[in-house]
Design goal:
By secondary structure, the protein is mainly beta. Helices cover about 5% and strands about 45% of the residues.
């Protein structure tokens, strides 16, 4: 099984000033640790909804709260659980393959996602029990 970095925050440059606003930028092979093959965004998600609830076999992602607040919980196969609060648009969260993750949004949240692969349903593990069976401790 390939070793991937653990979930971690990535700080993008914040260029500008309060009087004129800010821009954050990255270019290929700089801060995002993979070649971006897919970009998507989610928005208008009710605060009571928890999204995600899956892991990927191979896809790596960087999640960014372009607006609002997103609370992301990650769980690795070894049982390590981490909680990340994204609310600054120049911060991203790297989510490696084989990490179960869920997201909960503030009403105004817009989530931007950079992914390492095009959408393929076969890359998803959508049942938590399957995640634990495939990557959990083998006894």
């Amino acid at each position: 099984m390939a070793e991937f970095p653990k979930p971690h925050l990535i700080e993008f440059p914040k260029l500008g000033e309060p009087g004129i606003g800010y821009i954050s930028v990255t270019e290929q092979s700089q801060l995002v640790p993979f070649a971006v093959q897919r970009i998507f965004w989610t928005y208008y998600t009710p605060e009571s909804i928890v999204r995600g609830r899956h892991a990927h076999h191979r896809t790596e992602q960087v999640l960014i709260a372009a607006a609002g607040r997103i609370t992301v919980t990650t769980e690795l196969a070894d049982g390590t659980i981490e909680l990340f609060r994204l609310e600054d648009p120049n911060m991203g969260l790297y989510v490696p393959p084989q990490a179960w993750h869920t997201m909960q949004y503030s009403h105004s949240a817009v989530q931007l996602v950079f992914a390492s692969a095009p959408y393929q349903e076969a890359d998803y593990i959508r049942e938590y029990e399957d995640f634990k069976r495939v990557w959990g401790p083998q006894v």
